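W.,

You were right to be curious about this one. When I first looked at the sequence I had no strong expectations either way, so I just let the prediction run and decided to look at it fresh. Below is the sequence, 104 residues in total, followed by the output.
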Amino acid sequence: MSAETRTELPQATGSCCSPAGSCHDGAGEAPAGGVTAVYEVTGMTCGHCEGAVTEEISALPGVTSVQAVAATGRVTVVSEAVLDEEAVRAAVDEAGYELAGRAA
């Protein structure tokens, strides 16, 4: 008789891209409370793009949550107070994308 060996690779946690193909794993879901604004951002095509936009907007004072979705071009931002749109525009520009404005 021979012993059968089964090798399984561990699942990566906190990796760059989730199974859904984005750079976030849902951990940044919007918390209850705060001010929520949805922006339209052009040029995002993948999880890396989402991560770049999320990183820059997250650095703005008062931002508590950012969820960028390349497939829709929408970025949902939760903050302690209303954000200055020019500050958001500058953050998106720094990430290499363009803020088209607030989503309707």
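Here's what jumped out at me. The radius of gyration is 17 Å. And, maybe more interesting for your project: The CA atoms of residues 55 and 95 lie 8 Å apart.

Coffee later to discuss?

I.
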